[in-house]
Amino acid sequence: MITSRRAAALAGVLAFTLAAAACGSSSKSTSSTTSGASTSTGGSTSAPASSSPSTSPANLKATLNGSGSTFVKAFLQAGIASFTKANSGVTINYAGGGSGKGRQDLAAANITDFAGSDSPIPAADLPTFKGGTVLYFPVVVAPITVSYNAGIDKLQLSSDTIAKIFQRQVKTWDDATIAADNPGVKLPSTQIVVVHRSDSSGTTANFTSFLDKASGSGGSGVWTLKSGSTVQWPTDSQAGNGSTGVVQLVKQTAGAIGYVDYSDAKAAGLKWAQVKNQAGKFVDATLDGASAAVSGAAVSADLTFSAVWTRGDASYPITAQTWILVYQNQTDKDKGTAMKAFLHYLLADGQALAPTVDYAPIPKILASTAIAQLDKIQLPA
Amino acid sequence: MSSVPTDFRSRRGVADRAFQGLSVGAGVVVLAVLSLIAAITLQKSWPVFRDMGTSFFTSDRWSPPDNHFGAAAYIYGSLLSATIALVLAVPVSLGIALFVTQVAPRRVRRVVVSLMDLLAVVPSVVFGLWGILVFSTQIKGFYDHLHSLLGGIPVVGGFFGAPQGRSFFTAGIILAIMITPIITSLAREVIDTTPQTDREGALALGATRWEMIRGAVLPHSTGGIVGAVMLGLGRALGETIAAALVIGSSAQITRNLFGSGDSMPATIANQWGEANSPQKAALIGLALTLFVITIVVNMIATGVVQRSARRSQGLR
């Protein structure tokens, strides 16, 4: 009797603990559900889709999967976190892997629901997209810095000088070419160590696209390596894996120079150069400079554009952009509805998140054009 | 009474047939998988072979913006780093294997064997990260020293040119550490199979321990040791992430062992993410090339093993 009673008591305690634990975890999720619902219906400013007339956030229920650009990952993660907080029925997963992988996954049509891409789909790859027409939604832009470690406080570089440095035609910091861009600055005689990405990268594509546009065959002709996610760098240069790999090499190597995404350069405390833009002004790599660069860009009807080497006095000339790519014809009503709401959030309230993770918001006009494009997304009945 | 053995026989017949079917099936699956890999990679990489022809193998210019893909530098880098790895790993591995089987007392033997086995299970990315964060920065001083010591000598000096922390040689050393446990444990197994009578016979004839090893142990185990070395070579050729991190990622053909280079698997891993269609075809072409090289290496190894097996049978 005693033992069985004790066993019963034990079982009771155990059951209670389990229930409490279960309650703990479930109450957490339910409370976040209800609080999420209440904030979104309560119309607080952070509630994203509440301003969208087409969707009511309370009944969104879908899982969206995406992959692609690692450049935009930090912004998307911030956006996903605050969007799903307000719409607890929606789960959004974003795996990096590179823009190329993102486009490839989207092309297969049943792997992912959206892709992040730093560049438009190459014409040759368009037929591979099984789901039909793809819509581009620009979300953020950011500068690519030319970071250096040479004990110079303020460095100014023109595109021709950068081209010569990265092609190893200028090998010391006190070279006359660099001195010409920096009148009155005392330059050290240190050897220049060029650092580039070892992995193929949208950052490389945008950086070389800047050099190709500004100093390529159409311009001064100094830059001969053309542009792409991988180019054939001189063999006496160093390679780092990923943005962080380049940061590490620049940081630990005296005389190093490399191109690094703004957020990584800022986080690592690197110094970067002011770069001469199309208007002939030396412009610092800032979020404002990046936004200005997009304002000077020629945007096509499908919302593709290139933000490098654009017009305008304040434009920072090496500016990269990311689009979210989705199919115009959605095959799943719930997913399509959630996708529209998420994109609307990223283009409206979510833009305010951009500076907090070191990206620049896109100009208001472009954002409202992109929001208007949301109506093109077709949902199944 | 008489029906029991019949039953038994027929049951065994079924089991035999089932086993035969299973093993033939397994053999066919291996062949099918290999030929499918070959067929699909050939099909997917066809554009690059069509556009580049043999210059895919002879050109060292790999420039995706021009759609010019020459793999020579990557092939060279793979072969060179794997060769360095073998040159460093084989003597050490054989030394450990002989020490463990012929010299060491039992207690020491157990410790060494389990330590080597432990080394074998370390994931390659760990070696890669250690290589990039610690080893490649520390070893450069040693390279600098060798460069200043030997760099001035004609001909030989060319191998010890201006050093980079991440280089063919660094990759070779990291790969050597990775393949040493494999070669060691296989060589140890093979050496252990030397008949006790052979060894005792040699000792009885007045041979020293080294003479016994040279006269009895090594001839007996040559085939197996070659096989072990070839498995190590295969691993070194195919190693991706560790090589990608420490080899330097610069497509060049140079005899400077301290220069940075690139290998085939490392290039595939590095460039796949953002590659466009022609570049993807070229990367698959690299994979096919690597596949063919490893098959050739394995065929040579099989030949060597068989010849030495025949020879040792003939001797006996």
Give your account of this protein's structure.
The complex is a heterodimer of chains A (about 375) and B (about 325). With about 375 residues, chain A is an alpha/beta fold. Chain A has 2 domains: about 5-35 and about 45-140 and about 320-375, Periplasmic binding protein-like II (D-Maltodextrin-Binding Protein, domain 2), CATH 3.40.190; about 145-295, D-Maltodextrin-Binding Protein, domain 2. Chain A has helices spanning about 1-40, 75-85, 100-105, 160-165, 175-180, 200-215, 240-250, 260-270, 285-295, 335-345, 365-375; strands at about 60-70, 90-95, 115, 135-150, 155, 195, 240, 255-260, 270, 275, 280-285, 320-325, 360. In chain A, the strands form 2 sheets. In chain A, strands 1, 2, 3, 4, 6, 7, 8, 9, 12 and 13 form a 10-stranded mixed β-sheet that branches. Mean pLDDT of chain A is about 85; it is low at about 10-55. Chain B has a single domain (about 70-310), classed as Orthogonal Bundle (MetI-like fold). In chain B, helix 3 runs parallel beside helix 7, helix 3 (about 70-105) packs antiparallel against helix 9 and helix 4 (about 105-120) crosses helix 7. Chain B has helices at about 5-50, 55-60, 70-105, 105-120, 125-140, 140-150, 170-190, 195-205, 210-240, 240-245, 265-270, 275-315, and strands spanning about 60-65, 70. In chain B, strand 1 and strand 2 form a beta hairpin. Chain B is built from 12 helices and 2 strands, in the order H-H-E-E-H-H-H-H-H-H-H-H-H-H. Chain B is mainly α and about 325 residues long. Chain B is globular. The longest helix of chain B has about 50 residues, at about 5-50. Chain B has a two-stranded antiparallel ribbon with strand order 1-2. Classes of the chains: A alpha/beta (about 375), B mainly alpha (about 325). The interface of A and B includes residues 231, 239 and 245 of A.
